Amino acid sequence: MNPPALVLEHVSRHFGGLKAVDDVSLTIQPCARHALIGPNGAGKTTLFNVISGELPATGGQISLFGEDVTRLAPHQRAARGIARTFQITKLFPNMTVIENMLLACEALDRRKLVMFRAVSSYADLNQRAAALVEQFGLSGRTHEVARNLSYGEQRKLEVALSLAGRPRLLLLDEPMAGLSAGESTSMHAMLEQLDPAIAVLLIEHDMDIAFAFAERVTVLHQGRMLTEGHKDEVSANLGVQQIYLGMGAAE
Ligand SMILES: Nc1ncnc2c1ncn2[C@@H]1O[C@H](COP(=O)(O)OP(=O)(O)OP(=O)(O)O)[C@@H](O)[C@H]1O
Ligand SMILES: [Mg+2]
């Protein structure tokens, strides 16, 4: 049987006395669609930083596809199949859409160390970059510099860039944040079209979107896992209702 895409065992990340992530254990299966929800400051982004290696864990163990990566650097984890987006856009603003895309594909292409690359592999790279641009509805903007894109287009380009290295586990940090209703719907549709072979962990504030996208849902609250399970179980969980719907126990 294939190992899980991701296993977290008692993972913590403290900032001084603040337990931003506190004893989180979680398994993400290959091909999973999993949402990570929780109020502001719950520790969601910190958990992503710990998974991708931007921040070392204070405690616990992290495995990617059966391999312990707890002590590996971000680029070493990326080489093992993990990719992520950030809550804030990180594009090269003066480069065009296709240049941003080509750079990402090239940087992450396994053949990058081949000095005398066949011309056909460049064609390959161009084709892949163009296909990702198209997949995210940006074909009409191919030669536009990134800073001239609308905010929604920039966020789409970012998700497209995260796919450049052909990840097997994708971490998306609020890709819908700040989008208009229409843009959000179109981003959601694009996420639904992602290769089913990629396991996706999505941070999302909008409960409707989170539950529509994911099969399983994890709720973080003050760094701790409040609940984890099939979305039907989680949505029925009273604690979640209390946090999100303001249904206090006394009501
Ligand atoms: N580098 C840091 N140094 C100190 N404290 C931090 C750091 N990063 C995050 N925190 C704190 O850790 C807690 C969790 O923050 P985090 O950004 O992970 O929450 P979040 O669930 O992503 O919130 P949001 O929904 O607002 O994005 C917060 O109290 C935050 O202030
Ligand atoms: Mg966050």
The total of helices stands at 9
CATH class designation of the largest domain: Alpha Beta
Low-confidence residue ranges: 247-251
SSE sequence, one letter per element: EEEHEEHEHHHEHEHEEHH
Helix content: 25-40%
CATH architecture label name of the largest domain: 3-Layer(aba) Sandwich
Distance between the termini: 47 Å
Estimate nothing, just give the exact number of structural domains.
2
Radius of gyration: 19 Å
| Largest sheet geometry | 6 strands, mixed
Per CATH, the superfamily of the largest domain is: P-loop containing nucleotide triphosphate hydrolases
Mean pLDDT: 90
Ligand roster: adenosine-5'-triphosphate, magnesium ion
Q: Could you give the order of strands across the largest sheet? A: 6-7-8-3-9-10
Structural class: alpha/beta
**What's the shape?**
globular
> Remind me, CATH topology of the largest domain?
Rossmann fold
- Portion of residues in beta strands equals 15-25%
Number of DSSP-assigned strands: 10
Which key phrases capture this entry?
251 residues; binds magnesium ion; globular; 2 domains; 9 helices; 35% helix; alpha/beta; six-stranded mixed sheet; single chain; binds adenosine-5'-triphosphate; disordered C terminus; Rossmann fold; four-stranded antiparallel sheet
Word description of this protein:
This protein is an alpha/beta fold and 251 residues long. The chain has 2 domains: 1-81 and 167-251, P-loop containing nucleotide triphosphate hydrolases (Rossmann fold, 3-Layer(aba) Sandwich); 95-166, no CATH class. It has 9 helices and 10 strands. β7, α6 and β8 (199-203) form a beta-alpha-beta unit. α3 (97-108) crosses α4 and α3 packs parallel to α5. Adenosine-5'-triphosphate binds next to β2 and α1.
